[in-house]
Amino acid sequence: MHQLSPKRRTIAEIAAKAGVSIPTVSRVLNNRPDVASETRRRVEHVIEEYGFVPSRVKASLGKKSTGIVDLLVPGLETLYAVDIVRGVEEVLERTELRLAISVTHDSFQLEQRWLAKVLNGAATDGAILVLAHGQQHYFDTLHRHKIPFVVIDQRGDLGPDIPSVGATNWFGGRTATEYLLSLGHRRIAVIGGKATMRPSRDRIAGYRVALEDAEIPVDPELIRTGDFHQQAGYEQTCALLDLPEPPTAIFAGNDMQAMGVYSALRARGLSVPDAMSVVGFDDVAFASVVTPALTTVRQPLVEMGRVGTTMLLRLIAGEPLDGIRVELTTNLVVRDSCRPLHLTHHDPD
Predict the structure, then answer these.
(1) 63 vs 59, 60, 133, CA distance in Å?
(2) Domains, the chain, ranges and CATH?
(3) CA 191, CA 279: separation in Å to the nearest integer?
(4) How far apart are CA 220 and CA 207, in angstroms?
(5) Distance between CA 272 and CA 163 in Å, rounded?
(6) Fewer CB within a 10 Å sphere, N or C end of the chain?
(7) Closest C-alpha to 148, from 333, 319, 273, 276
(8) Cβ-count burial of 243 within 10 angstroms (0-12 exposed, 13-18 middle, 19+ buried)?
(9) d(Cα 209, Cα 14) in Å, to the nearest integer?
């Protein structure tokens, strides 16, 4: 008989299958004596059948456990953050912990406010941090107060003792550029994020290396600074199209900026990929359904959420990590937004 993956099972599902209440399942999981023998056997059978993984966290913390894990994200208006949240939720579904999400809207003040709340007694067993302005003093403060945490997709530099999950941004930037080079493009622009963002710097570094390996001079006019939002992609594309010699391809830095590239091209009466080849980064859900479907570098955002949460649970339980830094592989997903240069008709006028 086919069984669903354990990650899909919750205590509520076990209770429904066994015909008992959720508190009864909780008592069985915590080895409480106040459960009838037959009921205990029935619940344990369902737990074994479903492959349910009970949380060891609360047992390890005893009365100190709050039952809450904090997740700090810059915003939920983009699928980038939503995909990370999905990964976090999938792991926490297998535990008795609840998720508390705080949104900072890329605000330094709101990040500081969250930290102040935690230090002033806000209940949490640990934190998963997706920070826009995270600085070393945040991490030092959490360490001093013995609050376990894991950083996902850190945008700044990290000390050697900071547990983190990221992706191979340098490799992804290089792969995107090499693909465009393979199509014959030589005037390739890149729209990165802010210079303070480590993922952006790494993607642009990969772009530079790909050009240098192909013995193509890096043109500073083709390297543009955005902020990973759609409007930046629009504005920087307009500036690129106004150059005396516009690019024939744009590596947009992320999928949201790629949508801005699409909009700017449409506003100029230009089409993708006929007039411009475009590559994004992230591979969020809309990348495959826009027209034309976006060629992009897949960043495993859901998996980053899963891995980061698993690491945090080990830290909360006092278990050692297999490694402080985890980098998950990026890969190019080829769709319809690029074409060989000899088939491109570029007419900015």
Answers:
(1) 9, 9, 33
(2) 6-54 (1.10.260.40), 62-167+300-329 (3.40.50.2300), 169-299+333-343 (3.40.50.2300)
(3) 10
(4) 12
(5) 40
(6) N
(7) 319
(8) middle
(9) 53
Full DSSP string of 254-297: SHHHHHHHHHHHHHTT--TTTT-EEEEEE--GGGGTSSSPPEEE
pLDDT of 61: 47
| 95: three-class secondary structure by DSSP | coil
Which residue, 276, 269, 270, is CA-closest to 337?
276
CA 148 to chain centre: 20
Confidence at 133, pLDDT banded by 50, 70, 90: low
Confidence check: pLDDT of 190 > 50: yes
Q: Which of 250, 128, 107 minimizes the C-alpha distance to 189?
A: 250
Q: What is the pTM of this model?
A: 0.78
CA torsion sign for 191, 152, 287, 338 is: positive
Whether 297 contacts 281, CB under 8 Å = yes
Could you tell me which residues are beta bridge partners of residue 100?
Answer: 70
The span from the CA of 336 to the CA of 181, in Å, is: 16
Helix (H, G, I), strand (E, B) or coil at 192: strand
Residue-wise pLDDT for 95-123, tens only, equals: 888 999 999 887 888 888 888 888 776 77
Is 9 strand, coil or helix? coil
Are 40 and 59 spatial neighbours (Cβ–Cβ below 8 Å)? no
Question: Which pLDDT band holds residue 159 (cuts at 50, 70, 90)?
Answer: confident
How buried is 66 (Cβ within 10 angstroms: 0-12 exposed, 13-18 middle, 19+ buried)? middle
